[in-house]
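Protocol step 4 of 6: structure prediction from sequence.
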Amino acid sequence: MVISEQQSSRQRAYEAFTRHLLAHAVRPGQFVSQRELVELTGLPVGVVRELVSRLEAEGLVMTVPHRGMQIAYVGIDLIRDAFQYRAMIEREAVASFAIAASAEEIADWRRIHEAVLATCERGLGDKDPAVFLAEAQAMDFNFHTTIVDALGNAIISDAYRVNSLKLSLVRQERGRLTMALLPLAMKDHLSIITALEKSDAVGAVEAMARHIMRGRNRSLGIDSESEPR
């Protein structure tokens, strides 16, 4: 497929915005002007206008008359909606992955997760905690997106990534990964991996659902351990 210069500029603008969003350069609920978006993306006004239209359609920004564009506000509705959408997609995806994934791929994921967990348990040593957490967060994201992408459905993968951006806003405000939470997340993932190793689709779905529910509950300020499972 040949990508036009205009399409390339649009994609660069989108990627620049999401990069700043993930780097916390723009925050949930923050107002940004068109001029600020031009500066953030380094692209012309015309391209930025098209970017705003896409961001509005995806629910990542809202135009407020006389004030500019507001980054999506993190409220209870956004948290519930985003996690419900995530759960619907990932339950289906992990059930498929349990059947289709190779033993070698699953073994690689176990090795990576056990290495992160071992580092948490023995201590970071000279490692920078912020760098270690950022790497762990990237690995966490790759684990989930690998499972979703294995469905081979571009529409689902694209929509899942938009929803992941909304969840990144939620994490900025209410559920940021910490050194205390990281081992819990790794153990949740290892429970999923154990089911995958057995090609146990039902077990993988149940483990994934528990993992996502815990994330949702933390974001809502609910004690997950007190809830029935």
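Step 5 (inspection) to follow. Residues 76-100 form the longest helix (25 residues).
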